[in-house]
Structure formats: structure tokens, C-alpha cells
Amino acid sequence: MREVAFSSRCGSETCRGPATKPIGLIAKNAPRPSAIVTTWRPAKLSYRVVMLWTHALMLSSVIPSLLLLTYFYRRDTFPEPWDVLVKTFVLGVLSVIPVLMVALPASALIKDTSDSIVHGFLQAFLTAAAPEEFFKLMVVWFYCARHKAFDEPMDGVVYGVVASLGFATLENVLYVSTGGLGVALLRALLAVPGHAFMGAVMGYFVGQARARPDERTKLLLLAYVVPVILHGLYDFPLLALKPVREGEPVNPLAAWLLPITLGTFVFEWIWTVRIVRRLRTAQRAISNPSAIAPQREPSAHLTAPPTAQQPVVGAILVAVGVIASSLGGLSTLFWVLALVTHTTLSFVEWLTVMCLFGVLPLGLGLVSFFAGVRRLNGR
Predict the structure, then answer these.
(1) β-strand partners of 4
(2) How much is the pTM?
(3) DSSP tag of 306
(4) 49/41 Cα distance (integer angstroms)
(5) Taking phi first (over 0 means left), then psi (-120 to 50 degrees means alpha), and beta for anything else, what does residue 256 get?
């Protein structure tokens, strides 16, 4: 068997030995390499795949926040300045810092609680709901409400949502980067919209406090207490069941608490929709009083309103759009990153798969989302 020189050294001499694997055709007079370099590195490829999936999940976790921001922005008849919205979003992201400064010591105080239900309750209200909603309220009241662009009650809803989604976006990226696809889907459907709904409720009370100075103290108290209650009730069952994922004992009654999470989510969703609808009607009355004035017609021509189902259909289209866009965006990002790093597919195969399972659901989701928003806006 032909011998090939390797550059592994024993002292000061080069060891020689038979090649155990065919390296390829070596020209007779070709210089012998000092080292053999292979192009296949299973360990590095595995690491690339893991990093590829992690980056795709992290990027896709931003999509629900962007869609929700777009929804509330377009529901505002008198849109807010983009620079103020961006600053509010950034302040919402930065509010994570003081929240952690409060939540970490609070977590240390309750870590020895043995019962999972009691521990979940304390964790939900003391380490999550209370500090998070407090610092989000600080952003909305001390920055947004004092800005000259804040000049009507609907502004409170918009800024409350933006501040909450700033916090939720960073939180979502952190959770999804360690939790995987299941966490990404659940948070896209529940946690991120839940933050937006709680921000809308908070902003509603802030807007009312700004418009009614004589009741400011009571309304600001409601702007804090109500979101804390909603937030705590949503998190409580989930945190009570958290030991299950960690292989630790859990109170058997904790599983019966899950309807509280779903019920809280549905309640704050319906409440937010009604708040936005009422404030938007008031905006339309100001901008065009004749648009909502009742019109009398002959009884012979009275029929059921053609737009009676528009809010329901619009809400369904928006929900389907958020889900489809999130999944499509996740798939598109994954395949784009796969092309950049490594893929065994040909370019035509890669393009076909990405379009079918990524671009197509993303595009259809966006179409559904904006069609729903137009229906809700009555256009």
C-alpha cells in the first residue's frame, strides 16, 4: 500500500505510516503536503445547524410584535409620530433592566417555598406582574403622557401597547432562544398579544387620567392595579406548573388552574377590542361628525346592515394573519440562513421549498392581517 507523509512529529522526526483512507489521486511528482486538510467537519456542521435554528427563532420572535404594533397604529385615526413611537418602544426594551433589579431579589426571597401553587402565585405577582407593569407605567406616564403628541385618549392605548411590546419583544427573544419552536409558537399566540392587551388597558386608564385631572389619582392607580391583576392571573397557572418541565414535584391541583390563563387572555382581548372600538368611534365623531350620524330611510328599504359581521370577520383575519405570518417568517428565515451556512439542496430545490413553506404562508398571512385591519377600520 502506498505510503503518505503526515506531519505528526515524534520528537524531531516525521513519522511515516500507511494511509488508512484514500485521500484522493496524488500526482506522482506532486509535493507531499505537510498536513491533510479535510472539508467535512461534523462537529462544526452540527454547531452551525444549532446556531442557524436559534437565530431563526430569535428573529422570528420579533414578527408578532411588529404585526401588533402595525394593528394598533392603523386603528388610530390620528396616528402618532414615528419618532415618539420608536423612543417609547426603546424605553420599553430598557425597562427590562430595572425589572430584573427588582425581580431577582424577590425571586431569592420566595425560592424556598415548597408548594408549587403558592410559589407560582408569589412568582407571578411579585417577580413578574408587579415590577413589569410598574416600570411600563413609568414609561407611559412620565414620557408619553407628557409629550405634546399625547393629546387624546386613544394615544394612551397606542403608547401603552408600544411600551409593553418593547418589553415583550426582548423578553420573547430571550425565551425563544432557549425554549425552541414550541415556546416560539405559544408566545406568538398568547404571551406577546397578552402583553399588548395589558398595555392597551393600562394606556386607556392613563389617557383617561390625562383627560380628567380631578380623578387622576384614582385612574393612575387603576392603570397599575388592573394590568397587575391581569398579568398575575395569566402567569400564575403557568408558573405553578413550571416544576413539571424541570422534573420536580408539583401540586396535582396546579393543572386545574390552566383555564384561568386562557380565561384571562380572552377577557383582556375582548376588553381591548371594545376599548379601541369605542375610542375610534369618538375619533371619527371628531374628524367627521356626519360619518356616524343616524340616517333615516324608508322602512321598505330597511335591511340588515351589510357590515354587521365585519368586526368578527376582521378579528379572525387578523388572528389568522398573525399565526400564518409568524410561521411563514420563521420558515423563511430558517431557509435563508440555511443557504448562507450550509445546505445539501440544489439552488432550485432550496428556492422551491422556501417559497412553498416560507414566503407563501408569510405573504398570505400578511394579506389576511391587513385585510382584517381594513375590515375592523370599516374600509
Answers:
(1) 17
(2) 0.73
(3) T
(4) 12
(5) alpha
pLDDT single digits (tens) 307-354: 445 667 877 887 788 778 777 777 776 777 666 666 677 778 778 888
Helix (H, G, I), strand (E, B) or coil at 3: strand
Cell numbers at 5, concatenated: 507523509
pLDDT at res. 287:
67
Please answer whether residues 208 and 156 qualify as being in contact, where contact means their C-beta atoms are separated by less than 8 angstroms. Answer: yes
C-alpha cell at 115: 408548594
Highest mean pLDDT: which range of 4-18, 59-73, 173-187, 205-219: 205-219
Helix 130-139 × helix 82-94 angle, to 10°: 150
How many angstroms separate the Cα of 289 from the Cα of each of 249, 273, 284, 296, 301?
61, 22, 7, 16, 24
Task: Note the pLDDT of residue 102.
Answer: 93
Which amino acid is it at 227? P
203 exposure class (CB count in 10 Å sphere: 0-12, 13-18, 19+): buried
Averaged pLDDT for residues 47-75: 71
Instruction: Give the E-state strand segments of the chain in sequence order.
Output: 3-10, 13-18
Q: Scan for cell 392607580, then name that residue.
A: 221
281-290 contacts at long range (C-beta below 8 A, 24 or more positions apart): 282/153, 282/154, 283/76, 283/77, 283/78, 283/152, 283/154, 284/77, 287/77, 287/78
In sequence order, the β-bridge partners of residue 9 are 14
CA distance 181 to 334: 12
